[in-house]
Amino acid sequence: MEKKTIYKRLYKDYSKKYLNKIILSGLLSILVAGSTSAIAWLLDPAIKKLFIDKDQSLLFFIPLMIILAFTIKGLSLYFAKKTLIDVGEEVKKKLQYDMVKSLIGTDTQIIDKKHSGKFVSNITYDVTHITNLLTHAILSLFKDSLTLFGLLAVMFFQNWELTLISIIMIPLAATSAKILGKRIGKVTTEAQEKSGFLTTYLVELFKNHKLMKIFQKENYEKDKADKHLDQLKEKNKKIQTVYVRMSPIMEILTGIMIAILIFYSGKLMSLGKLGINNFFSFLAAMMLAYQPVRALSTLSMTLNQGLSAASRIIPIIDQKNYIYDLDSAENLKINNGNIEFKNVTFAYESEEGKILKSINLKFKGGEMTALAGHSGAGKTTILNLIPRFYDIQSGDITIDNQSIYKTTIKSLRQNISLVSQETTLFDDTIKNNIKYANENASDEEIFESAKKSYCDEFIKNFPNKYETLIGENGVRLSGGEKQRLSIARAMLKKSSIILLDEATSSLDSETESKIQNALEILTKNKTTIVIAHRISTILNSNNIYVIDSGEILDYGKHEDLLVKCKLYKNFYEKQIQK
Q1: Please, what are the domains in the chain?
Q2: Which of 95, 103, 387, 570 is the most buried (most CB within 10 A)?
Q3: How far apart are CA 406 and CA 388, in angstroms?
């Protein structure tokens, strides 16, 4: 994105709302500049009246004025900074919210392209740099430019010749800052990438800590962590090094200026063109100008950091979904719940080859249909296409003769429940995990769903019952308990269509029996599509499709497929042997 475009977006969408506070900070900066300039100017009468003329009449007045000037400067600077801190945090929250909102609403296929750790890094690392851009940079622009202007006025008032010599330092510092600013933008981008890699690594590490321990990979992971941290350290060192490079540049320039000024001032004094009071006032103004010149010289570096971060954040906020409602989309109306795939072709954007190849499927309403086949045949893809987690390349999918691509996504997903073998739970209470399916559900409805899914049996054993915190992804629960909880959630939604990726193969017989009973209650009189992992599922299905390499190999009743489909017969026999 172009810098001009980024500036416009940051102003229009995030800063404009707080323009009154930014202006207030600017007005307070005028007081900071005025009081700083007054401090330098007061040295002139102080030296002349008190030390040269030995005039005691201003002995109390001038010190009081200096105290007043410093007080005004301190308070004005405090309120200016506080005002922009408030603005910065508001903008930071808005940016983070817009990113989170965009990521929540974005397509599954977009999320799949980037590790969650990278998004976390964008939300935390990058936003900080934009906050600095909108707070520190703006304050510096106001305060330091106005202060520099005021001090230059004092310097010109004391001696215009010395002032002209001094201002040579400003373009020299600006040129150095411009060169360093480009460098810091590049280094910041590199540091963000390393931060993203570190966050990604940490997410993976915490998620797979049991795997790490069982394979005794602690030392391997320590070395890996050290490598990530070392890379980020080096990038951050580069950023800080670029920043501090301005210090020796400014020190050298200041030293040269002071040396030249002392040499030239000595000549002016010998000619009677410069008084000692004028010289000290001028010198104080010039020394005070050192800080704003230095701050302004690093301003371009802060701007480049912020712009670099914004160039990564704004595309996330502006991300357009591939899956969206047509303007003419209508709400889905479920009658019988018949689902049909018509010549459906699908391929994941990131993969070569078609996953589904012009398939035709019919799922009769109120009945259970099983999908059987080897791993990677396309069974899970079929389930994912119905709620439009992904969109097909060609063909159509209808529910009761209504194309799902001509109905609203909200009404489509309202009528679908998904129970996956990869059970997803939140680090929250049991009650809230069930209630996630319907936030308006009453306690009675939640308890009823829990009883029907046999969750009540293990919930009552916890001291806090339904208010028990289950930990990250239900770490305090067993695999069977997690599965029953996900079934309870699906029951509470009361959807007409159930998509079921069974996960009972690794459970003991008693737990499996309870889950099968719960599934029977869940799927009764519902349009159910299930990926068959168990014999019981196959036998309970009204119809079975055999999927192989993205194509429909055969379909029919269990008894018929045993006779006419060799692949199905092999699949069934393997199930019997387990």
Answers
A1: 3-317 (1.20.1560.10), 323-415+497-509+525-578 (3.40.50.300), 427-494 (no CATH)
A2: 95
A3: 12
